[in-house]
Amino acid sequence: MAAISGLMRVMEKAARKAGQRLRRDFGEVEHLQVSRKGPADFVSKADQASERTLWDELRVARPDWGFVLEEGGVIEGDPTKPRFIIDPLDGTSNFLHGIPHFAISIAVQEPALDGKGPDGSGWGDVTAGIVYQPVTDESFWAEKSRGAWLQDRRLRVSARRHLDESLIATGIPFSGRGDMGEWTRIYHELAPRVAGIRRFGAASLDLAWVAAGRYDGFWESSLESYDTAAGCLLVREAGGFVSDYRGRSLPICAETVLAGNDALHSKLHKLVAGALKAG
Question: So what's the pLDDT on residue 2?
């Protein structure tokens, strides 16, 4: 097993502390007070408390770093230092409906060396990430050039080479979010060619499961950086490929994301491109 860096220990400690409260609140989910933030986008007190715990823990450890928070937005830090990208509760709808499939996602992104970055944001590579699933107590983590891990077990993407043997994950547009026409075209192109398609409702875990070889591929659009930042690094460090639908390998693919091993990513990209062109 690779030695865990001090930074990763800080991130895992924060995730586990926030996860303890999420587990407790999940056990009493029917009593949670829920406020409506937008169409089909519910924010619970548990979500807010998780974010506050992560913020408190990470701010103490790295007081001059910036943050990108799902609820709190962008908090600027020293522009020469990295920033944390945090989703305190990915899979909120699952959580609120008593479905035990949700996670905490934390990633570290470095400032771009040229001040621009490949996407023009001023930010560069993601160098550390963790996706923690509180119910199963599974900690998926990765650091750039040091591999991807589940606890102390090295992760590798699946070795399947054929689509008809492959299980593919996705996210389905809902309540005004995402392009249902685009998704439907891709689905119709992929579904007859693969062994199955799954939609579990937490993109960070979908990507972590691609890294672990549980899924063979993944596609989704209209996500945010906090949904995918840690997951993109996990897949890459597990030997897989992540791109947008155009085939660009950005540090964080969120607006559109396509992931898999080398052989399947190529095949999936060809089919997705064909579906979009037909549209």
Answer: 67
